[in-house]
TrEMBL record:
This is 3-phosphoshikimate 1-carboxyvinyltransferase. Residues 1-22 are annotated as: Disordered. The lineage of its organism: Bacteria, Pseudomonadati, Planctomycetota, Planctomycetia, Planctomycetales. GO terms for biological process: amino acid biosynthetic process; aromatic amino acid family biosynthetic process; chorismate biosynthetic process. Monomer. PROSITE patterns: EPSP_SYNTHASE_2. It holds the Pfam family EPSP_synthase. Its main location: cytoplasm. GO terms for molecular function: 3-phosphoshikimate 1-carboxyvinyltransferase activity. Catalyzes the transfer of the enolpyruvyl moiety of phosphoenolpyruvate (PEP) to the 5-hydroxyl of shikimate-3-phosphate (S3P) to produce enolpyruvyl shikimate-3-phosphate and inorganic phosphate. GO terms for cellular component: cytoplasm. The keyword NAD does not apply.
Length: 428
């Protein structure tokens, strides 16, 4: 990709069909669980992106053989049966939050010393809560620079088990990490969630992946989970559904242009909570057609809404782009935790919308957007793939919209701009 990408406006409503790549959330969870399982697991429909590549490389560094066939979007994982083969490894995770959090917990299952680190932004992203939870279980783990962020050092002697607690208000990935490795512990683990859990649908993904590998969890109370030692059993095959967060951009493209876009491979019962972004668009005025293996969004005149996006916060930026074309204000609220993502997403949303000459109000956990005439602008991405993909949609209707650093989309969707151009080309 060039250093900057100018979006070409469409001449009319977009009409077409697209199938996004496999879900990052499911791919990285399936890789962790398959690594702990007995036997070789065959994953199909996997995402090939920076986030999954650093996960695969790290598993190989831990001595768990992962063979990735990019041509067929498939992976074979030779499971370690709950025993990490290597006793020492340094893992580099770039800015992949799922990877560093899931692997920190995975390393606690092993025997030896493991260091996990990432790029500059990763060293600003919190992980102390997960480290504290592992410590409560008897794991020798620390944030090496005492910042509460990576690098993390784990001196492992197996995962003893016991009781632990985890904060729920920063990231659901902490609980997901503990849940996935708990079956490999030496004794049962009881986890108590402190405070309100953010991004709850991602826990459903975790539980769904674990169930596919034959592991069950006892939910003692609403905020208390108990996991007995048990062995993951490889499924006959595991096919990963398309990424619902990525699909949101194409649904939004239909909404913004008044077009009609079908996303293949997803339905309302998808494992990923972000599929519920279509309900937000429906509330704004779009028509939704739900079928067994596809979802179609028909754009209609849009009106602003006030919406709690806590459960589907990865689509908050997508909604911000759509809100610019609605009649009336839109408020995206209860998303304070997205300040700890690839960038401070609330600040980034507000700053870039102001750059377009639009009035926006930012609070600690919300943004309110007041649509008006949009000025052409170069949108800064903050090395955040979702900023690039979301705000590129504005350029479908507004000439002169430029995306700085479009290559940041390699994190989860390397072919995004190619697929967007192909979709727009179907209408011409």
């Amino acid at each position: 990709m060039p250093k900057k990408y100018e979006v070409t406006p469409v001449s009319g409503p977009i009409q077409g069909t697209v199938k996004p790549p496999g879900s990052k959330s499911i791919t990285n969870r399936a890789l962790i669980v398959a690594a702990l399982a007995e036997g070789t697991t065959h994953l199909t429909g996997v995402l090939d992106s920076q986030d999954t590549q650093v996960m695969i490389e790290s598993l190989n560094r831990l001595g768990i053989r992962v063979d990735h066939d990019r041509e067929t979007c498939s992976i074979k994982v030779a499971g370690c049966g709950g025993k990490i083969p290597r006793h020492e490894a340094s893992l580099w995770l770039e800015n992949s939050g799922t990877s560093i959090r899931f692997l920190t917990a995975l390393c606690a299952v092993g025997e030896g010393e493991f260091v996990l680190d990432g790029n500059t932004r990763m060293r600003q992203r919190p992980i102390q809560d997960l480290v504290n939870s592992l410590k409560q279980l008897g794991v020798d783990a620390d944030c090496a620079e005492e910042t509460g962020c990576p690098p993390v050092c784990v001196k492992a002697h197996g995962l003893p088990g016991g009781e632990t607690s985890i904060a729920g208000n920063v990231s659901s990935q902490y609980l997901s990490a503990l849940l996935m490795v708990a079956p490999a512990a030496q004794s049962s683990i009881t986890i108590t969630i402190q405070g309100e859990m953010v991004s709850k649908p991602y826990l459903d993904i975790t539980l769904g992946v674990m169930a596919q590998f034959g592991v069950t969890i006892d939910r003692v109370q609403e905020s208390v989970w108990k996991i007995q030692p048990q062995t993951y059993q490889r499924p006959v095959a595991y096919d990963i559904e398309p990424d619902a967060s990525a699909a949101s951009y194409f649904f939004a493209a239909a909404a913004i242009t008044g077009g009609r876009v079908t996303v293949d491979g997803l339905n309302q019962d998808a494992l990923q909570g972000d599929i519920n972004f279509i309900r937000v668009l429906e509330d704004m005025g779009c028509e939704i057609k739900r079928e067994r293996n596809s979802i179609t969004v028909q754009g209609k005149p849009l009106h602003g809404i006030d919406v709690d996006m806590n459960d589907i916060s990865d689509t908050a930026q997508t909604l911000a782009a759509v809100a610019l074309f609605a009649e009336g204000t839109t408020t995206i609220r209860n998303v304070a935790h997205i300040r700890h993502k690839e960038t401070d997403r609330l600040y980034a949303i507000a700053t870039e919308i102001k750059r377009m000459g639009i009035q926006v109000e930012e609070t600690e956990d919300s943004v309110t957007i007041h649509p008006g005439p949009i000025q052409p602008a170069t949108i800064e991405t903050y090395d955040d793939h979702r900023m690039a993909m979301s705000f590129a949609l504005v350029g479908l209707k507004v000439p002169g919209m430029v995306i700085a650093d479009p290559d940041c989309t390699i994190k989860t969707y390397p072919e995004f701009f190619t697929d967007l151009e192909r979709l727009c080309g179907q209408s011409s």
